[in-house]
């Protein structure tokens, strides 16, 4: 199963009959949850529940905008809602009289008000046929959207795998340097403690304390956990599906390990400086991956 990007677009243009056709389009971008926005013409509110249900059944995350645009035969006559226009004019006249205002009603402005204009073709038969057609088209349209999201997901997976390769190289580089850096840290610590305590101090006891301190500063566990997280990340990418939140959590854990590694090795000096460089490279790759993950479903 592929991973899915939350970015996608699909459109269907359908002719219901000679005088009625429509365009149904859906686009999605990244979002923490599934956020649905519908743009439907007046008179088709009965479709909203069905369309929302279809979107929730097919998509998990993303800001999704579904738009239905209806195109009727341009030769058909346009009309106006007489009662509605009359009520607007009556309200205008009442307000002018009450507040003693001067001016005339703007017909162009009134006809732009919601519901003022209407065609003579908004009959129940057309609306029923249109609704039935849209209900038939929504499923294949969403399948087309999912195909595009899967294709985008493949590109994201390739980018993330490349990032993991570079992250693995940095982890391996630190693992190679770790023994020498630990020995350097132990030698420096021993010298400083000997200088502070003098030759009469119990040397064996001193070395035991140094060994304990070196063990506490060991980065072997951080490296092991980093390798485990990288392996789990690759497994989730290969399994696919709804993995965006899981991958984001793994990257948070990786970043925590990189921070701990840097805090333990920052003052060693020598080749410890190289470990610092590699640790910063890890954090850079992790941040790049987190940017990509924001668009994974």
**Count of discrete alpha- or pi-helical segments spanning 4 or more residues:** 8
Tally the structural domains. 3
Helix content estimate: 55-70%
How many strands, which pairing sense, and closed or not: the largest β-sheet? 4 strands, mixed
- Percent range for β-strand residues: 5-15%
Mean pLDDT: 85
Q: Tell me the span between the first and last alpha carbons.
A: 13 Å
Question: How would you classify the helix and strand content by structural class?
Answer: alpha+beta
**What is the rounded Rg?**
33 Å
Helix-strand pattern, N to C? EEEHEEHHEHHHHH
Shape: elongated
- Strand line-up of the largest beta sheet: 1-2-4-3
Beta strand count: 6
Please mark out the parts with pLDDT under 50 across 5 or more consecutive residues, or reply none: none
Please provide a brief summary of the model.
This protein is of the alpha+beta class and 297 residues long. Helix content is 62%, strand content 14%.
Keyphrases for this structure?
297 residues; alpha+beta; Ribosomal Protein S5, domain 2; 3 domains; two-stranded antiparallel ribbon; 8 helices; 6 strands; 62% helix
Walk me through this protein's architecture.
- By secondary structure, the chain is an alpha+beta fold.
- It is built from eight helices and six strands.
- α4 runs antiparallel to α6, α6 (220-239) packs antiparallel against α7 and α7 runs antiparallel to α8.
What topology emerges from the helices and strands here?
Elements: E1 8-17, E2 20-29, E3 34-39, H1 48-58, E4 62-72, E5 78-80, H2 82-98, H3 107-111, E6 117-119, H4 124-197, H5 203-216, H6 220-239, H7 244-265, H8 272-293
Parallel strand pairs: 3-4
Antiparallel strand pairs: 1-2, 2-4, 5-6
Helix pairs in contact: 1-4, 4-5, 4-6, 4-8, 6-7, 7-8
């Amino acid at each position: 199963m592929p991973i899915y990007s939350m970015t996608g677009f699909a459109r269907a243009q359908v002719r219901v009959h000679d005088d009625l056709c429509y365009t149904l389009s859906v686009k999605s971008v990244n979002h923490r949850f599934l956020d649905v926005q519908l743009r439907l013409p007046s008179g088709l509110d009965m479709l909203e529940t069905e369309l929302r249900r279809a979107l929730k059944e097919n998509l998990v995350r993303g800001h999704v905008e579904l738009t239905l645009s209806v195109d009727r035969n341009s030769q058909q006559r346009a009309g106006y809602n007489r009662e509605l226009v009359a009520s607007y004019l009556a309200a205008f006249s009442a307000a002018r009289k009450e507040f003693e205002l001067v001016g005339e009603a703007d017909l162009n402005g009134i006809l732009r008000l919601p519901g003022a204009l209407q065609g003579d073709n908004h009959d129940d038969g057309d609306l029923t046929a249109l609704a039935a057609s849209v209900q038939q088209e929504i499923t294949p349209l969403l399948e087309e959207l999912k195909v595009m999201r899967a294709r985008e997901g493949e590109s994201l997976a390739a980018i993330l795998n490349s990032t993991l390769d570079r992250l693995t190289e940095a982890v391996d580089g630190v693992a190679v340097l770790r023994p020498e850096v630990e020995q350097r840290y132990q030698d420096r610590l021993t010298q400083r403690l000997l200088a502070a305590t003098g030759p009469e101090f119990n040397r064996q006891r001193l070395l035991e304390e140094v060994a304990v301190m070196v063990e506490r500063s060991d980065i072997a566990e951080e490296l092991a956990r980093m390798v485990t997280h990288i392996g789990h990340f690759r497994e989730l990418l290969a399994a696919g599906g709804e993995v965006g939140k899981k991958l984001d959590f793994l990257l948070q854990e990786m970043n925590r390990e990189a921070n701990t590694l840097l805090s333990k090795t920052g003052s060693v000096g020598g080749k410890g400086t190289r470990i610092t460089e590699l640790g910063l490279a890890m954090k850079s790759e992790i941040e790049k991956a987190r940017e990509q993950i924001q668009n994974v479903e």
